[in-house]
């Protein structure tokens, strides 16, 4: 969060833009009747790399150059073309603003994502969740005999082995081809299966969903999006499997009864909270795939598990040994272990650390360096 502390746009001219949007009825959500709203527009020549980055509903502060003791707070409405920011300020700002006014601009984060992580950490303290966090000996369910089946083209021998392990309700594996094939096999073989595929970023979720859309009917697959994800970055072939409300210009989830009917749902770790918020209970999903769990913080991964998994859920975690989240940059957080992912920490427990083939599958076995292997 401190990344923005020293990031200040100095001596900025702010332009006003009139847009027609839906009426703000509270909590910064635009819904209801159409109204004309005045936005402030400015360009950021250089935006900090990677996360954290500006998102809709992050906070903007404008400090007039001629009034050192005055500062106005607004919020980001939209970021266009990755560099042009539209922000919404209140009447107090507009009453003193002139076309010649110049400002220093700074930013702060909307804490909604952190609040979801805090909620997940609190939920994970329930004693019944202990075995997910600190597995003394993972419960091994009886494996069942798998019938012969045909894999899709391009699935290699090691990947087939990992897929068979997933189908036998065992351990960890790799993302990509393995996950796609495993989800497809689970979907095919059990009419009662309910699958959640979660990943840290939208790009991964979109890619996995697109790889399965030609196999799973639209009526049985759904993509959860953050409410104010920009619609123009969502792939066109995925949009039919999303719920976008034109009147409120935001993504939503259907009512609980309809949501429960989907057999396969895709979401980022953070946005999975929306399923919990809509009333999906822990245990609803028969299988939860945490994809690339080595590249995100453990509290973020817990947003999925703490709210949606129980002792009856088959949880498959994928990641790369030695890979750590680049999002945790605070020295204080790093010293206290937050850079260590759920995947990396889990792998230190028996039987994962012993590479027990009943619980963990290693891809790329010919590679000598363990640091490059995926599980």
Automatic annotation (TrEMBL):
All copies of domain Helicase MOV-10-like beta-barrel, residue ranges: 38-107
InterPro entries, per database record: MOV-10-like_beta-barrel, P-loop_NTPase, ZC3H7A/B
Pfam entry (one): MOV-10_beta-barrel
Taxonomic superkingdom: Eukaryota
GO molecular function: miRNA binding
PANTHER family: ACETAZOLAMIDE CONFERRING RESISTANCE PROTEIN ZAM, MICRO-RNA BINDING ZINC FINGER CCCH DOMAIN-CONTAINING PROTEIN 7
Protein name per UniProt: Helicase MOV-10-like beta-barrel domain-containing protein
The species this protein was found in: Eucalyptus grandis
């Amino acid at each position: 969060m401190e990344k923005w502390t020293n990031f200040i746009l100095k001596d900025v001219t702010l332009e006003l833009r009139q847009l027609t949007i839906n009426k703000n009825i509270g909590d910064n959500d635009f819904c209801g009747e159409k109204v004309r709203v005045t936005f402030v527009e400015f360009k950021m020549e250089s935006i900090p790399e990677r996360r954290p980055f500006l998102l809709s509903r992050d906070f903007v502060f404008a400090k007039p150059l001629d009034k050192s003791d005055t500062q106005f707070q607004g919020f980001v409405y939209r970021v266009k073309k990755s560099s042009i920011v539209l922000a919404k300020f209140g009447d107090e700002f507009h009453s003193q603003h002139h076309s010649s006014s110049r400002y220093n601009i700074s930013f702060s984060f909307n804490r909604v994502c952190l609040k979801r992580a805090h909620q997940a950490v609190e939920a994970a303290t329930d004693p019944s969740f202990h075995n997910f966090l600190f597995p003394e000996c993972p419960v091994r369910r009886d494996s069942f005999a798998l019938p012969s089946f045909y894999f899709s083209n391009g699935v290699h021998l090691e990947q087939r082995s990992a897929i068979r392990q997933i189908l036998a309700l065992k351990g960890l594996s790799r993302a990509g081809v393995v996950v796609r094939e495993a989800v497809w096999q689970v979907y095919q073989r059990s009419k009662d299966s309910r699958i959640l595929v979660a990943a840290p970023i939208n790009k991964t979720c979109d890619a996995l969903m697109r790889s399965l859309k030609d196999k799973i009917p639209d009526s049985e697959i759904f993509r959860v999006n953050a409410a104010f994800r920009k619609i123009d970055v969502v792939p066109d072939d995925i949009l039919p499997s999303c719920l976008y409300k034109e009147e409120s210009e935001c993504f939503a989830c259907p009512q609980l009864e309809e949501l429960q009917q989907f057999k396969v749902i895709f979401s980022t770790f953070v946005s999975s909270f929306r399923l919990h918020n809509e009333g999906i209970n822990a245990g609803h999903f028969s299988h939860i795939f945490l994809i690339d769990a080595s590249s995100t913080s453990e509290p973020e991964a817990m947003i999925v598990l703490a709210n949606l998994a129980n002792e009856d859920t088959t949880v498959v975690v994928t990641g790369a040994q030695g890979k750590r989240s680049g999002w945790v940059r605070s020295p204080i957080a790093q010293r206290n272990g937050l850079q260590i992912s759920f995947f990396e920490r889990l792998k230190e427990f028996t039987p994962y650390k012993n590479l027990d083939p009943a619980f963990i599958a290693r891809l790329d076995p010919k590679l000598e360096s363990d640091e490059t292997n995926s599980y």
